[in-house]
Amino acid sequence: MSFPLSPRARSGPRRRSLLAAAPAALLVAGCSAGSEDAGASGGSRPSAADRARARAARDSRELAERYDAVVAAHPKLAERLRPLRAEVVRHAEAFGGTPESSPSPSPSGPGSPSASAPAVPAKEKDALAGLAAAERELAGRRAKALLDAPGELARLLASVAAAGAAHVYLLTEA
After folding, report:
1. Deepest in the core among 24, 61, 69, 145, taking most CB within 10 A?
2. Alpha-carbon distance 152 to 34, whole Å?
3. In sequence order, what DSSP letters do the residues of 45-76 get, joined into one string?
4. Residue 169 in 3-state DSSP?
5. Is pLDDT of 50 > 60?
């Protein structure tokens, strides 16, 4: 025997679902509020967010220098690497780094590093693998750093880490 349905049909959210969603809403509101004034400390010492942003900009500039070194050592790769390097430069700018108008490859040959450029393997495949490893390592560091970063910086770190992972794929595909 089945029981008849209640004549009162409920519409809208149930009390349990509202009570379950309230803590999540408070957490999101708390995270958002802290990100606005994280950079407005006004103190003489840079905040943790400012230091993380400066580190990320420096890392991107160094990665762009690696791209320059690979292009200088292997000019045939220039066309393939140009868009990736341009994106790395935009990442440095997004983190507050100084804009860079054009690549400045060092005049080093394959496998012979200049004073400031990183060493580049003599084989193109190895040079691309080295760039991919640098991108992978940097994406991993940024993914870890975003856990402690305030809202907007965390979103930027996540986005740039994802772009780095895409660069790894593009550098390693045959």
Report:
1. 69
2. 10
3. SPPHHHHHHHHHHHHHHHHHHHHHHHHHH-GG
4. helix
5. yes
